[in-house]
Specification:
The complex is a heterotetramer of chains A (about 425), B (about 290), C (about 575) and D (about 725). With about 425 residues, chain A is mainly α. Chain A is built from 17 helices and 6 strands. Chain A has a domain of about 140 residues. The termini of chain A are far apart. Chain D has 5 domains: about 120 residues, Ubiquitin-like (UB roll), CATH 3.10.20; about 70 residues, Alpha-Beta Plaits, CATH 3.30.70; about 130 residues, Sandwich (Jelly Rolls); about 130 residues, Jelly Rolls; about 170 residues, no CATH class. In chain D, strand 7 and strand 8 form a beta hairpin. Classes of the chains: A mainly alpha (about 425), B mainly alpha (about 290), C alpha/beta (about 575), D alpha+beta (about 725). Chains in contact: A-B, A-D, B-D, C-D. At the C-D interface, helix 2, helix 3, helix 19, helix 20 and helix 21 of C face helix 2 and strand 7 of D.
C-alpha cells in the first residue's frame, strides 16, 4: 500500500527529538523493580538482623557463649554506646578484652612476665566457628612465640623450638629429669606392681579365714578421685592410693589375737599407743604379749611396705620390742605434670596397660610408670587440627590447648589440709624437680 | 545480541574456565573435611563469582556512559553474556553445592534465577529481532509509539474527512459543481455508513491501548480488509485512496501493537534480570563483607 | 568579437544612434543579446540600461534569450495564408512537437516575399514557394548541421531578369545620376519642384500625399540641419513593390533622395530598409559604394558646396517602422513608436529636424518625372489617372508578381491580364487593393481603376499597390481575422486603444469564426472600431478595423451566413482549422 | 510651431472662449477654461505623452486628438465632451478594465485607482465588461522589491512611472519593454524590481494611477507597536520626521510621499552603553543604522567541540581516555582552518575572538531584515548610541541609495575584502600589497533570488567570491539541469573558465540575496602570475571539480536503471556517502545508539532510530553525507559546509534558522536548543542550532556504532556495502 508515502524525512519528523530523555517505560520499570529488589533485600536484611543476628553471624558461636547468641553487642561492643541495635555497623568488629573480662573476671595470670607481647583474647579464642570449646585455641597462638621462644629476661626454662606436639615438643619433664634417687626419696614405698597384679592372690582373710582368692585390677587401687575422695572426673587426675581403702583388706594391721581391732594407719606413734592400750587391756600386765604385739605390728606389718627404722636392723627379731618405732611415710604426687593437664577420665576408654605397660612388670616402688611422649603421640599424632573435625578415628587432637593452659585459671588441686583433715601426702611432682 | 560465529572464542573460554574450575574443585571436595565457602578454595571461587557478578553489573554502568572509549559495547555485552554465565558455576563451586544459612541460600537461588533469566533474555534477543523485522515493517521507536498512535488518529480522521469531502454533494457555484454532479452520484447514506464505521470501529481501535485493542474487530487483519473492501465497493474509485489510506493506518496501528508485544518480550525479561541482579549484587556484597569481616 | 569599451564620437544627444548595430553585432557573435551585453552597450553609450533594453525588447529581431537550434517561422499573413501557410504551420508544429527543445515553429509577420508565398524562415533563411516536404528536409538539414552560407544570389538588374522598366529614364548605367549632376550644376530646385508638381507625384507609400508639398514644406522649414528619409520599410502584407524597385532600380531611389536632399537642403539621407531585405540591402550598399566612388555623396559634392551623405539604415524590424514618425524614432535608436502629431515631420522629423520622408517608389518616380518630364509622367496614366505605379499582385492568382502599370488600369486587368487570373476552376470573390489596410473589396468591384480618389471613394485605398486576390477557397471573414491578427501583432503598444483594442478585435473575430457570437457583438465591434479609428495615435491603429468593416460592408451575405447560420462556404471557419 | 511665436491666443473650448499663451496644450487650455478633461496618463509635473488617449478631444482634425499633447491654436474650436467622444472614452475605459483586475490593489487599499474611479464615474463598470479578458498575464506579479509591489496586470502603460523615474528622480530604471499587447514596463533589462538598479525612491509608486505599483506596507508591523510587548527592546521608539530622514544623505532622492507612507517602518532608538541591541539567534525583521555611537558586535564563542584525550589502544589505556571539550574546532586533514566568521554586518569576526566594532554610519542586520534569518551575532552598544531601526522596505531604500552603496562597498573593501579573500584557501597566500591592488578593482555585485550570475556557455570574464548568500552551480546535461554544487558564503566560482580560457562551464544562479565580489579576468590573471602557487592550487581544485562533475553526470544516467536497483535508487541511497544502518536482525531496539549520540553531542541526539528500510537494514535518520547536499542550499550564515573529506558539518555560528533542516530530504538535520555559552554566556535564553551527524569526527568511530552492544549499527559506504546485493558497485561503475 503505497498510498501513504513513507520517506525517511516523514518518518523522522514524527518524533520528539528528546524522547530518549524521558525514559522508556520498560527501563523505568527495570529501575523501579531494581530499587524495589534492593529495598526488599535491605529490609529483609534489616528485619532479620533485628529479629536475630544470625543473618550477620559469620558462624555459629561457641557453646560457652551460646547464651549470648542474639546479643552481638555483648561482645561486639557498640561503637557508640546505645547504637548496638544497628546491625553490622553499629558494633565493633573486634571484640575488646574488656568484653571478655566483664565475665571472665579472673583469668589468672598470663605468663606476662615472660611473654614479649600479650595478645588480645580474641586472637586465640576464635569465635563463630561452631560449637567448639573456646579454649581450644589454635596452635598458632602458642607457636607464635614458642616456635622460637625468646624471653624478656633470663633464659627460657622450657624448650625454645616447639612447633607442635609432634614437632619440637620435648619428652615430659619427669621422664626427662627424675633420677632414681629422686624417685626413691620421692615415693618411699616398697611396692611390687607385678606381684599385686598376679592372678589368684590370697585376698582378704576375715577372722583368719581366707575369703577366697582375688585378682587385682589397676582400678582396684587407682581411682580417679581427688584426695578427699571426691569425684575427680573434672580434673581427671588419679587419686593417690590409700591404705585404709585399698590395702588394708588384705594387709590387715592386726597385732594380737585377742585384740580384734587393727592398728590405725596414721602415724607410728598413734599405732603404738593404740597397740599398747589394746594389749594391756587384753593382757594386762603381760609385757611379753606387749612385745610380741609390737614386733608383729612394726616388724612384720609396717615394714612390709614402709621403711621402719630399727626394724631393718633386726628383721626377724620379733620379740625385741622397738623402743620408738619410726616409720618413714610414703609420698605420692597428686599431679605428675606441672604445666600440663592430663585427664584420665577422657582417656577412660583406653586400657591402663596401653599406656602404663611397664606397670605390669614393675617390681619396685621406685619405678616411674609414667608413659613417655611417644606413647601419647601414638594417638595425638598431629593429624587433626584444633577446631577441625576428627578426620579419622585413631587420630586424637594434638593442639597445645589440650594439655597446656595459658591462663592457669584453675588452681592445681594440691592438697592443702583444711580444718581437721589430715594432710594429704599428695604433692606436685615438679616440686621435687630441680629448679632452674 | 545474535549469538553467532564471533562468540566462538567466548564459548571455548567459558567451557575451559568451567572445566578448569571443576578440575580444581573435585579433588578438593573429595579431600576436604568440610568443603565450603570458608575454605581457601571455596573462598577463591566465591571471590571469582563475585568479581564476575560485579563485572556483569558493570555493563549497566557502561551503558550509562556509552561514549567513553573503554572498549566497544559489543565486547562488553559479549563479556557480560559469557562471564555472567560463568558466575553460576563459580557460585556453585564456591558453595560446594550446599547452601549454609538463609542468606547463602537466597544468594544461590538468586544467582540461578538471574543467570537463567539472562540466558532466556539472550535467547529472546537472538530470535526476536528478526521476527520483529519480518512481522513489523511499520516498526518505529518503541518509546514513541503513543505519540505515533496519536498522530495516526489525527491522520485517519483527516482521511475520513477526505472521504466525506470527496463524496459530499457539490457545494458552491461554478463549473466544478456541474462536473462533480455528473461524476459523483449522491452517496449520502453510504458516506454516513462509512462515517459510522469509522467512528465506531476504526477510531476506537486506533485509540485503544494494546490489551483492549486485541479484542476489537479491527485487530483482525483479514476481517478489517473485508470491511474496507466492502466500503470500497460502495464508493467510486476516486474515494478509494483515502479509504485505503485509513486501512493502511489501521494496519500500522496493528503493527505497532504487535511491536509493543514483541518489544515487551524483547526487553521484558530484563524486568526480572536487572532487579534481581541488583539484589544479588547487594546481598552478595553483604555476604562477602560479613563473611570476610567476622 | 567584443564591442569596443567606449563609443567615440558620439554626437551630442544622439547616444543611441547606431544602437542597433551594437545589438546586431552582439547577436551575430553570441547568437542573442544577453543582459550583460545590454548593460555593456548602455555603459558604452552612456545611457541607462533600461534605454537599451526597452529598444532591444521592442524589436522581435533581437533575441534576449539563447536561440533555439532551429527556429522555424511561418508567415501566415494574407497572401501566405491564402496559399496554405496556416495548414503548413500546423503540420510543421505537429511534426516537431516532440522535438520542441530543438525545433520551434511559430509565426512571422510578412517578410515581403508575397509573390513567392508561402514563405518560411528557418533560422532567418527565407524559403520561398515552399511546401511541407521541402521545409521538413530543410529543418532536418539544419538539425544535423547548421547552415553557414548566406542567401542565394538572384538576378540584380532588370536586364538579368529580362524585363523592361518604363519608369527608368536611363537607357544605360553610365547615364545614372545625370539628373542630379545637372541639378547640382544648375541649382534650379524650384523648377524641379514645379516639375514634380506637374507630374502630380504623390506619396506612393499609401497615403498619396502630394510629394512636392512635403518637399516644399521641408525646404521652407527653418533650420540648418535637415534630413531626407526614404521609407523602404515595406512591411505590409502583399506589398512587394519596393523590394523590386530597390533590387532593380537602386540608382533611381538614391538619386531621388539626393535630389530631395538638394531641394530641401538636407545634409543626410537615410534609406530605411527592412532587415529581411538582405539582398536588397546588399545591392543598395554596392550602389552606395559606387556613389561614394564617383563622389556623388559626401561634402561639397561636385564642387557645388552642397553636402549630402547617404546611409542605408537597416531596420530592426516591425511594420510599425513604416509609420513615418515611428521610423524616425527607430533611426534615433528608440522604440519605434509613433509620435504625437503635430508637429509634422517636415518640421520636426529625425532628431527633431525638418525631414522629407518618402516612399521608395516616390523617390523613384521623382527621377522618372525629372528624367522624362512631368508631362510624360502625367500622361502615361490612363483613364484620367496620372502616373504609373508598381503594383504587386499576389494571392490566389496564377502569376503573382510585381507589375509596373499605368495608373487607371483596372484591377481586373491587373488580376487577369498581368497576373494570369485565378487558378483553374476557381472564382475570385474579393480582393484587397492594398493589403490589409485597404480592407477587402468584392470581386464585383474589380473593374475599379487604379486611381487614388476612386478607390478612396469606395472606402478603400489605393495604398501601396499590394493587390491580394482571394478566390472562392478563401473565406473573407477569415481573411479579415488574418488582417486583424497582423495589426495586433504589429501594434507598437504605445497608445492604449490600439494596444488593447487590436487584441480585443482579434478575440472578437476569433469567436465569430468559431461560431461564438453574442447579441451585442455588432455594437461592440462598432464601438471598438470607433475607438480604434478615432482615438488611436497613428495610422496603424486607425486602420486596424478596416478589414472587418470592409468585409461587413461588402460581404453582408457572407457575414450573415457566418453569424446567423454558422456556415462557411469555403469550409474554413467553424471547422476548427482556423 | 516656430512661426507662431508667442503672445496670447484665443480659442473656444466647449463653447467657452479662453485666452492662453502660445504653446499651451488643449488640455491646459480647457483647464484654464474650467473644463476638466479626464485623463490617466498625464500628470501636471510630467511631460505629456498622450498614450492613454482618454483625454482625446475633437479639435477639428480627422481623428480625435489627445488634448494633453495637442497644442492649442488660435481660433481653434475644441469639443471635449461630445457624445461620440464620451463613447470613445467609455469604450477605452472598458478596454483598459477588461485586462485590469477589479478592484486592483490600490483600489483595495485606498480606493483611489484612477482608472476604476474614472470609469465608474463615467458609468463603465467592470462587471459589465464586454471584452474577453487577457488569457495569459503579460507578466507574473513581481514581489521582489521589498518596498514596492508590481502587479503587471493592473498596469495600463500610462508611462507615468517611467517619467517619474527618469524625469523627476533621474534614476532611469523603468522603461517599456516588448511591443503591442505584450508591452509592459520593465526595470532595467527586465530584472525583477528588487534586482534592478531601482533605488526604491518610491516615485513610480506615487505616480502610478492604478494598482500596478503599490506600496508594500509591511502588514501588521509597525515598529511603534511591537516595542511595548517585547521586553528585550524596551527602548522607546521615537518617530522620525520625514524631513529629518530626507536630510540624511542615505535618504537623498527618496520620494517624501513614499517615506510618509511608511512612517511606521523606521524609528529612532537610543541605547545606553552596554545595552544589547540584538542578540544572536533571535528572530527579527529589522535592520539598524547607526546614527551616533559605536557598538560591539560579537558572537558566543564557538561551541565546545569534543575530542578524545589519551586515546590509545588496549583496554586499560582506553579506560583512562576521556572526552574533553576543545575551545577551537581544529579539524585535521583540512588545508586551512577558518580564520574569520562572516556575519550580517560589514565586518568579519575573527574566529578565535569573535568581536568587532561598528561605528556611526554603519548598517547591520540586513540579512535578518531582508530574508528573516535569525540574527547572526549579538550587538551591544559600546557607547550611548542612536540608531534608526527600520523594516525591510526602508532598508531597501537605504541599500539602494547610490552614495550609501558606495560607502558600503568602500567599507567592505577596507575592512573585509582582505580577510575574505584570504579565507578562500587558494588565496591564503596573497600578499597584502596585492590585496591593496585588488581593493580598488573588485566589484561588489548584488543578485536577487533566482537571478543568474553567470550563464553556461558565456565567455568567462571574471572570477566570483561569494560575500553573502548562496549560489547554485548547475550544468545543462541531457536537457535537464544538473546541480553540481551549492556554494555558500565564502565560496568561489568562475575559476575554470578563466583558467582554461574557455566559456563558462556551468550556470551559477543566486538562490537568495547574493552579494558577490567580482574579480575581473585581467586582475585574476595578474594574481596568478604574481602567485604561481595559487595557480597550482586552483588547477587542482578545477581538476577535482571536473572529476566530480563527470561522476555526477554518469550517475544521472544510472538513475534509470533496472528493478533490483530500484529501491536503492528510489531511496536515494546511492547519493549517500555514508549511511548509518542498523541490522534489524541483530538490533534489539535498545536505543543505545541514540543515547550514545546524545552523550557525545551535548545531550541531544543527532540520529533517530526510525526510517526507511533497505533489505534487512534500517537506514537510520542520520546524516548521509550526500554527494549533492541539498542542506547546504541557502544557509544564511554559511555555517553548513563540507569538509575536505566530504562530510557535512555545521559550524558553530549557525543561527538555527532551520533552512538546512527543511532542505534535507531525509530529515537528518534537526534543530536543538542549547544554552548560551562563550562571550554571550550569562544572558538569558537559549540558542537554536542545527545539528547533524558529524560522524564524531574527532573520534575514531562514530559513537553510535561504538556503543551498539549488538553489533547491529554500522556506518557504511552504501555503494560498497550493498555492492554484493545490487550486483554492482555504483561507485566503481561510476569510475
Amino acid at each position: 500500500m503505497a498510498i501513504r508515502k513513507r520517506t525517511t524525512k516523514s518518518l523522522a519528523r514524527r518524533h520528539d527529538l528528546d524522547y530518549f530523555k524521558k525514559g522508556s517505560d520498560i527501563r523505568l520499570w527495570q529501575w523501579r523493580l531494581a530499587l524495589v529488589a534492593l529495598i526488599a533485600a535491605i529490609i529483609w536484611l534489616g528485619a532479620s538482623a533485628f529479629r536475630s543476628s544470625q543473618a550477620f553471624s559469620s558462624g555459629p558461636i561457641s557453646n560457652a557463649h551460646a547464651v549470648f547468641g542474639q546479643k552481638c553487642e555483648v561482645c561486639h561492643i557498640p561503637v557508640v554506646s546505645g547504637m548496638g541495635w544497628l546491625p553490622v555497623v553499629g558494633n565493633r568488629r573486634h571484640v575488646p578484652d574488656s568484653a571478655c573480662l566483664s565475665c571472665h573476671v579472673n583469668t589468672g595470670p598470663h605468663h606476662t612476665d615472660l611473654a614479649k607481647i600479650t595478645e588480645p583474647c580474641s586472637s586465640c579464642h576464635i569465635e563463630h566457628i561452631g560449637a567448639m570449646h573456646l579454649a581450644a585455641t589454635p596452635n598458632k597462638g602458642c607457636t607464635e612465640c614458642h616456635a622460637n621462644l625468646e624471653v624478656s629476661h633470663g633464659t627460657p626454662s622450657i624448650a625454645t623450638h616447639i612447633d607442635s606436639f609432634t614437632k619440637g615438643h620435648p619428652d615430659f619433664r619427669p621422664l626427662r629429669l627424675a633420677s632414681a634417687e629422686l624417685r626413691t626419696s620421692a615415693f618411699g614405698l616398697k611396692f611390687d606392681h607385678s606381684v599385686h597384679l598376679k592372678k589368684g592372690l590370697l585376698g582378704p582373710v576375715v577372722d583368719g579365714a581366707p575369703q577366697g582368692k582375688v585378682t587385682l585390677q589397676c582400678a582396684s587401687c587407682h581411682r580417679v578421685e581427688d584426695a578427699r575422695g571426691r569425684d575427680a572426673a573434672h580434673s581427671g587426675l588419679m587419686a593417690p592410693v590409700k591404705f585404709d581403702t585399698d590395702c588394708r583388706s588384705c594387709h590387715t594391721l592386726n597385732f594380737d589375737k585377742s585384740v580384734a581391732e587393727q592398728a590405725p594407719h596414721t602415724t607410728a606413734l598413734a599405732a603404738l599407743q593404740f597397740l599398747r592400750t589394746g594389749v594391756s587391756a587384753a593382757h594386762p600386765g603381760d609385757d611379753g604379749a606387749m612385745k610380741r604385739a609390737e614386733a608383729v605390728l612394726f616388724r612384720e606389718k609396717c615394714s612390709l611396705c614402709h621403711t621402719v627404722s630399727g626394724a631393718e636392723s633386726l628383721p626377724r627379731v620379733t620379740n625385741i620390742a622397738l623402743e620408738t618405732p619410726v616409720v618413714t611415710p610414703t609420698k605420692q604426687p597428686e599431679r605428675w605434670f606441672s604445666s600440663a593437664i592430663f585427664s584420665h577420665t577422657v582417656h577412660g576408654s583406653v586400657q591402663c596397660s596401653e599406656c602404663h605397660a611397664n606397670a605390669l612388670t614393675s617390681t619396685s616402688g621406685k619405678d616411674l610408670l609414667l608413659p613417655d611422649i611417644k606413647t601419647c603421640q601414638r594417638c595425638h599424632d598431629g593429624q587433626s587440627r584444633p577446631q577441625g573435625p576428627v578426620l579419622q578415628s585413631g587420630h586424637a587432637e594434638s593442639g597445645c590447648f589440650l594439655c597446656h593452659e595459658y591462663h592457669e585459671t584453675r588452681p592445681h588441686p594440691v592438697a592443702v589440709a583444711q580444718g581437721s583433715e589430715p594432710p594429704s601426702p599428695a604433692f606436685r611432682l615438679d616440686e621435687l624437680l630441680p629448679r632452674h | 545480541m545474535r549469538i553467532d560465529q564471533t562468540h566462538k572464542p567466548w564459548l571455548y573460554f567459558t567451557l575451559a574456565a568451567i572445566a578448569l574450575s571443576a578440575i580444581v574443585f573435585i579433588p578438593y571436595a573429595r579431600t576436604a573435611t568440610q568443603p565450603g565457602g570458608g575454605t581457601p578454595i571455596g573462598l577463591t571461587f566465591g571471590v571469582l563469582a563475585l568479581a564476575l557478578m560485579v563485572f556483569a553489573a558493570l555493563l549497566s554502568v557502561r551503558k550509562r556512559f556509552p561514549v567513553i572509549r573503554i572498549g566497544r559495547s559489543r565486547l562488553w555485552l559479549k563479556a557480560h553474556l559469557w562471564l555472567g554465565f560463568l558466575a553460576l558455576p563459580m557460585v556453585l563451586f564456591h558453595a560446594a553445592f550446599h547452601a549454609r544459612g538463609l542468606l547463602a541460600a537466597i544468594l544461590m537461588v538468586l544467582t540461578i534465577i538471574v543467570v537463567a533469566s539472562g540466558v532466556y533474555g539472550a535467547y529472546l534477543q537472538h530470535t526476536l529481532p528478526s521476527k520483529m523485522f519480518r512481522q513489523v515493517p511499520y516498526e518505529t521507536i518503541y518509546d514513541q509509539i503513543p505519540v505515533i498512535r496519536a498522530q495516526l488518529v489525527t491522520e485517519a480522521q483527516q482521511q475520513a474527512f477526505n472521504v466525506a469531502e470527496m463524496l459530499a454533494p457539490a457545494r458552491g457555484a461554478g463549473a466544478t459543481v456541474v462536473l462533480t454532479m455528473l461524476t459523483v452520484p449522491e452517496l449520502g447514506a453510504e458516506v454516513a455508513a462509512f462515517g459510522l464505521f469509522f467512528d465506531s470501529e476504526v477510531l476506537p481501535y486506533l485509540q485503544a491501548e494494546r490489551p483492549l485493542a486485541t479484542r476489537m474487530a479491527m485487530y483482525d487483519r483479514t476481517r478489517a480488509a473485508e470491511e474496507f473492501d466492502n466500503y470500497r465497493k460502495l464508493f467510486p474509485q476516486k474515494a478509494w485512496e483515502p479509504i485505503t489510506a485509513i486501512q493502511d493506518i489501521a494496519e500500522e496501528k496493528r503493527q505497532l501493537d504487535h511491536q509493543l508485544r514483541l518489544h515487551h518480550f524483547l526487553h521484558g525479561w530484563l524486568l526480572m534480570h536487572l532487579p534481581l541482579s541488583a539484589a544479588l549484587l547487594l546481598l552478595g556484597f553483604i555476604h562477602a563483607f560479613v563473611a570476610l569481616r567476622y | 568579437m567584443p564591442l569596443p569599451e567606449v563609443l567615440v564620437n558620439i554626437e551630442p544627444g544622439r547616444n543611441k544612434l547606431g544602437v542597433f548595430e551594437d545589438l546586431r553585432h552582439v547577436q551575430e557573435n553570441i547568437g542573442y543579446v544577453p543582459t550583460r551585453e545590454i548593460e555593456r552597450i548602455a555603459t558604452r553609450r552612456g545611457v541607462a540600461v533600461k534605454d537599451v533594453h526597452t529598444v532591444a525588447s521592442f524589436y522581435p529581431h533581437f533575441r534576449l534569450k539563447p536561440p533555439i537550434r532551429v527556429d522555424v517561422r511561418v508567415c501566415d499573413d494574407m497572401t501566405c495564408h491564402l496559399r496554405g501557410a496556416h495548414q503548413l504551420q500546423r503540420a510543421l508544429a505537429r511534426q516537431y512537437a516532440s522535438a520542441s527543445e530543438h525545433v520551434q515553429v511559430r509565426d512571422i509577420s510578412c517578410v515581403g516575399r508575397c509573390d513567392h508565398a508561402p514563405v518560411v524562415s528557418i533560422n532567418e533563411h527565407y524559403h520561398e514557394d515552399t511546401n511541407f516536404r521541402q521545409i521538413v528536409t530543410e529543418i532536418d538539414k539544419e538539425l544535423v548541421a547548421p547552415r553557414v552560407e548566406g542567401h542565394s544570389h538572384p538576378p540584380r538588374s532588370p536586364e538579368e531578369r529580362g524585363i523592361a522598366i518604363q519608369c527608368d529614364p536611363y537607357s544605360s548605367p553610365t547615364d545614372h545620376y545625370s539628373i542630379y549632376r545637372s541639378l547640382l550644376a544648375n541649382k534650379n530646385f524650384d523648377e524641379a519642384l514645379a516639375e514634380l508638381k506637374g507630374g502630380e507625384l504623390r506619396g506612393m507609400g499609401g497615403a498619396g500625399f502630394p510629394t512636392f508639398i512635403k518637399w516644399e514644406g521641408a525646404r521652407k522649414s527653418p533650420g540648418d540641419e535637415k534630413f531626407v528619409v526614404c521609407n523602404a520599410d515595406e512591411s505590409e502584407p502583399g506589398t512587394i513593390k519596393d523590394r523590386f524597385i530597390l533590387q532593380y532600380l537602386p540608382h533611381m531611389v538614391f538619386e531621388g533622395m539626393m535630389i530631395a536632399g538638394a531641394i530641401v537642403g538636407a545634409q543626410k539621407g537615410y534609406l530605411y530598409i527592412r532587415h529581411e531585405y538582405e539582398l536588397q540591402t546588399e545591392v543598395l550598399n554596392e550602389e552606395l559604394a559606387h556613389l561614394r566612388e564617383i563622389g556623388l555623396v559626401g561634402n561639397n559634392i561636385l564642387g557645388s558646396g552642397i553636402n549630402f551623405d547617404l546611409e542605408v539604415f537597416v531596420s530592426p524590424g516591425g511594420y510599425i517602422c513604416g509609420e513615418e514618425t515611428a521610423l524616425m524614432e527607430a533611426i534615433q535608436g528608440n522604440r519605434s513608436e509613433p509620435r504625437n502629431k503635430p508637429p509634422r515631420t517636415v518640421n520636426s522629423g529625425v532628431w527633431g529636424k525638418p525631414t522629407a520622408l518618402n516612399n521608395v517608389e516616390t523617390f523613384c518616380h521623382a527621377i522618372t518625372i525629372l528624367g522624362r518630364g512631368g508631362e510624360w509622367y502625367h500622361n502615361i496614366g490612363r483613364n484620367g489617372s496620372p502616373g504609373i505605379k508598381f503594383v504587386g499582385v499576389t494571392g490566389n492568382v496564377r502569376n503573382p508578381g510585381i507589375f509596373e502599370v499605368p495608373m487607371g488600369t483596372t484591377y481586373r486587368e491587373l488580376v487577369f491580364d498581368y497576373a494570369g487570373g485565378p487558378f483553374e476552376g476557381r472564382e475570385i470573390i474579393g480582393f484587397a487593393p492594398s493589403g490589409p489596410s485597404s480592407g477587402y473589396l468584392p470581386a464585383s468591384l474589380l473593374d475599379t481603376p487604379l486611381d487614388w480618389d476612386k478607390v478612396k471613394a469606395l472606402g478603400s485605398m489605393l495604398g501601396s499597390g499590394a493587390v491580394v486576390v482571394c478566390d472562392d477557397t478563401s473565406c473573407m471573414l477569415d481573411m479579415a481575422l488574418v488582417a486583424s491578427r497582423f495589426y495586433r501583432n504589429e501594434s507598437c503598444g504605445k497608445c492604449s486603444p490600439c494596444r488593447i483594442g487590436t487584441q480585443k478585435l482579434v478575440d472578437l473575430l476569433e469567436n465569430w469564426t468559431l461560431g461564438i457570437n453574442n447579441p451585442g457583438d455588432n455594437k461592440l465591434l462598432k464601438d471598438l472600431s470607433n475607438v480604434l479609428r478615432a482615438a488611436s495615435l497613428c495610422g496603424l491603429g486607425q486602420i486596424a478595423p478596416a478589414p472587418i468593416q470592409s468585409v461587413i460592408k461588402h460581404f453582408p451575405e457572407l457575414m450573415k451566413r457566418h453569424i446567423e447560420d454558422h456556415v462557411c462556404s469555403a469550409g474554413i471557419c467553424f471547422a476548427g482549422s482556423v | 510651431m516656430a512661426h507662431h511665436d508667442s503672445g496670447p491666443m484665443t480659442l473656444t473650448v466647449d463653447d467657452v472662449e479662453v485666452t492662453v499663451p502660445h504653446g499651451t496644450t488643449v488640455f491646459d487650455a480647457a483647464r484654464l477654461a474650467g473644463i476638466t478633461i479626464p485623463v490617466l496618463c498625464h500628470q501636471q509635473n510630467q511631460t505629456p505623452v498622450g498614450v492613454c488617449r482618454i483625454c482625446v478631444c475633437d479639435v477639428g482634425e480627422r481623428a480625435l486628438q489627445a488634448s494633453c499633447v495637442f497644442k492649442a491654436e488660435p481660433g481653434m474650436v475644441v469639443k471635449t465632451n461630445t457624445e461620440p467622444i464620451q463613447a470613445v472614452r467609455n469604450t477605452l475605459y472598458e478596454l483598459m478594465l477588461s485586462d485590469h483586475p477589479s478592484p486592483c490593489i490600490r483600489q483595495q487599499q485606498s480606493h483611489d485607482c484612477e482608472l476604476e474611479t474614472q470609469a465608474a464615474a463615467a458609468g463603465v463598470l467592470p462587471a459589465a465588461n464586454r471584452f474577453k479578458q487577457r488569457a495569459v498575464p503579460v507578466m507574473q506579479a513581481d514581489d521582489s522589491s521589498v518596498a514596492i509591489h508590481v502587479d503587471y496586470s493592473a498596469c495600463i502603460l500610462c508611462d507615468r512611472c517611467i517619467r517619474g523615474c527618469s524625469e523627476i528622480r533621474h534614476n532611469n530604471v523603468i522603461a517599456r519593454q516588448g511591443k503591442g499587447y505584450f508591452a509592459a514596463i520593465a526595470f532595467d533589462s527586465n530584472e525583477p524590481m528588487g534586482n534592478s538598479s531601482c533605488v526604491s525612491c518610491g516615485e513610480c509608486m506615487v505616480s502610478c494611477p492604478t494598482g500596478a505599483l503599490t506600496n508594500k506596507k509591511i502588514v501588521g508591523q509597525s515598529l511603534f507597536e511591537d516595542s511595548d510587548g517585547d521586553p528585550t527592546t524596551h527602548n522607546k521608539a521615537y518617530p522620525v520626521e520625514t524631513e529629518e530622514l530626507l536630510a540624511l544623505p542615505v535618504f537623498k532622492g527618496v520620494s517624501g510621499t513614499f517615506l510618509e507612507l511608511n512612517a511606521g517602518a523606521v524609528v529612532k532608538r537610543m541605547y545606553k552603553a552596554g545595552e544589547v541591541v540584538v542578540r544572536e539567534g533571535d528572530n527579527g525583521s529589522t535592520a539598524f543604522y547607526i546614527l551616533e555611537g559605536d557598538v560591539d558586535i560579537l558572537i558566543g564563542g564557538p561551541r565546545a567541540h569534543v575530542t578524545t584525550e589519551n586515546e590509545q589502544d588496549g583496554f586499560f589505556k582506553k579506560m583512562v581516555s576521556r572526552i574533553r571539550p576543545k575551545t577551537q574546532d581544529v579539524r585535521e586533514g583540512e588545508r586551512t582552518t577558518p580564520t574569520h566568521i562572516r556575519i550580517d554586518a560589514p565586518v568579519d569576526l575573527p574566529y578565535n575572538d569573535p568581536i568587532a566594532q561598528l561605528h556611526a554610519g554603519d548598517l547591520f542586520g540586513e540579512m535578518t531584515c531582508m530574508s528573516f534569518y535569525p540574527r547572526s551575532a549579538t550587538v551591544r552598544a559600546k557607547t550611548d548610541c542612536v540608531m534608526l531601526e527600520m523594516l525591510r522596505n526602508v532598508l531597501d531604500v537605504m541599500q539602494k541609495n547610490k552614495t550609501f552603496r558606495a560607502k558600503l562597498e568602500a567599507n567592505y573593501r577596507g575592512r573585509a575584502l582582505g580577510t575574505h579573500l584570504r579565507s578562500v584557501p587558494i588565496f591564503s597566500t596573497v600578499s597584502e600589497d596585492f590585496i591593496d591592488i585588488l581593493r580598488d578593482r573588485v566589484e561588489l555585485i548584488r543578485f536577487a533570488p533566482g537571478q543568474i550570475i553567470c550563464q553556461e556557455g558565456e565567455p568567462a570574464d571574471s572570477f566570483f567570491l561569494i560575500r553573502i548568500g548562496f549560489v547554485r552551480v548547475s550544468q545543462k546535461r541531457l536537457g535537464e539541469d544538473l546541480v553540481l554544487a551549492y556554494l555558500p558564503r565564502g565560496g568561489y566560482f568562475g575559476v575554470m573558465g578563466l583558467l582554461r580560457e574557455i566559456p563558462r562551464t556551468a550556470t551559477c544562479t543566486a538562490l537568495d540575496h547574493v552579494e558577490v565580489v567580482k574579480i575581473k579576468a585581467p586582475d585574476f590573471h595578474l594574481m596568478l602570475d604574481r602567485f604561481p602557487e595559487i595557480r597550482l592550487q586552483i588547477e587542482a581544485v578545477a581538476r577535482q571539480r571536473d572529476k566530480e562533475n563527470t561522476f555526477q553526470l554518469q550517475r544521472t544516467t544510472e538513475r534509470q536503471s533496472a528493478q533490483p536497483l530500484h529501491q536503492f535508487l528510489a531511496q536515494g541511497l546511492m547519493d549517500a556517502q555514508s549511511l548509518l544502518i542498523l541490522d534489524l536482525e541483530k538490533c534489539t531496539r535498545c536505543d543505545q545508539c541514540v543515547k550514545a549520540c546524545a552523550d557525545a553531542h551535548d545531550g541531544v541526539t543527532r540520529l533517530l532510530r526510525d526510517g526507511v528500510r533497505f533489505d534487512k537494514y534500517l537506514v537510520a535518520t542520520s546524516c548521509r553525507q550526500c554527494r549533492d547536499p541539498l542542506c547546504m542550499v541557502g544557509c544564511p550564515v554559511g555555517s553548513i559546509r563540507r569538509k575536505n573529506s566530504l562530510e557535512v558539518i555545521i559550524e558553530d555560528w549557525c543561527v538555527g534558522c532551520g533552512l538546512c533542516a527543511n532542505n534535507c530530504p531525509y530529515g537528518n538535520i534537526t534543530i536543538h536548543e542549547f544554552d548560551r555559552d562563550g562571550k554571550d554566556a550569562g544572558t538569558k535564553g537559549k540558542v537554536r542550532k542545527a545539528t547533524s551527524c558529524d560522524l564524531c569526527h574527532d573520534m575514531k568511530e562514530p559513537s553510535c556504532v561504538y556503543a551498539c552492544p549488538h553489533d547491529a549499527a554500522h556506518r557504511v559506504k552504501p555503494n560498497e556495502f550493498f555492492a554484493g546485493m545490487l550486483g554492482t558497485n555504483l561507485d566503481e561503475a561510476a569510475k
